[in-house]
Amino acid sequence: MAPTEQIDAYIAALDDWRGPMLARLRRAILAADPAVAEAWKYRGSPVWECDGPIAVGNAHKDKVKLTFSHGASLDDPGALFNNGKGSVWRAIDVFAGDSIDEAALTALVRRAIAHNRARKGR
């Protein structure tokens, strides 16, 4: 199965609010750049990449977590990051009833892509 199909199946199997929320996050990520690719890694997680890793999405029991691989290096004017104070990753934890600013998420993904491209000298 292709990664996109695996992610489709993963989202479809979530029979509560987490499925639609992960689908919304996915749409916002894919809207950032036509070069964003989907992958299925880390023992069953949706991953988005463009010139390097962008984010990993996971549905946990009580939240949907979107972990940005180099989040600590990204400017976050939309104040989306609410988890991770380390020197590398940061995450957005979304709980039932939370809303997400999709435009701010798309802009954050664009910053992650720019960060990846700068690291590669593009």
Task: Report on the architecture of this protein.
The chain is of the alpha+beta class. The protein has one domain (3-119): Aspartate Aminotransferase, domain 1 (Alpha-Beta Complex). The chain is built from 3 helices and 5 strands, in the order H-H-E-E-E-E-E-H. Strands 1-2-3-4-5 form a 5-stranded antiparallel β-sheet. A hairpin with a 3-residue loop joins strand 2 and strand 3. Helix 2 (18-30) crosses helix 3. The longest helix is centred in the C-terminal third of the chain and has 18 residues, at 102-119. The chain starts with a helix and ends with a helix. The model has no long low-confidence stretch (mean pLDDT 96).
Task: Please name the defining characteristics of this protein.
single chain, 122 residues, alpha+beta, Aspartate Aminotransferase, domain 1, five-stranded antiparallel beta sheet, 34% helix, 24% strand
CATH architecture: Alpha-Beta Complex
Q: Specify the helix fraction band.
A: 25-40%
Number of domains: 1
> What characteristic shape results from the CA principal axes?
globular
In which order are the strands of the major sheet placed?
1-2-3-4-5
Quote the average pLDDT. Answer: 96
List low-confidence stretches: none
Topology, number of strands: 5
**CATH domain topology:** Aspartate Aminotransferase, domain 1
> How far is it from the N-terminal to the C-terminal residue, by CA?
32 Å
Specify the structural class: alpha+beta
SSE order, as H and E? HHEEEEEH
Which CATH class is shown?
A: Alpha Beta
Question: With helices defined by DSSP (H or I, 4 residues minimum), what is the helix count?
Answer: 3
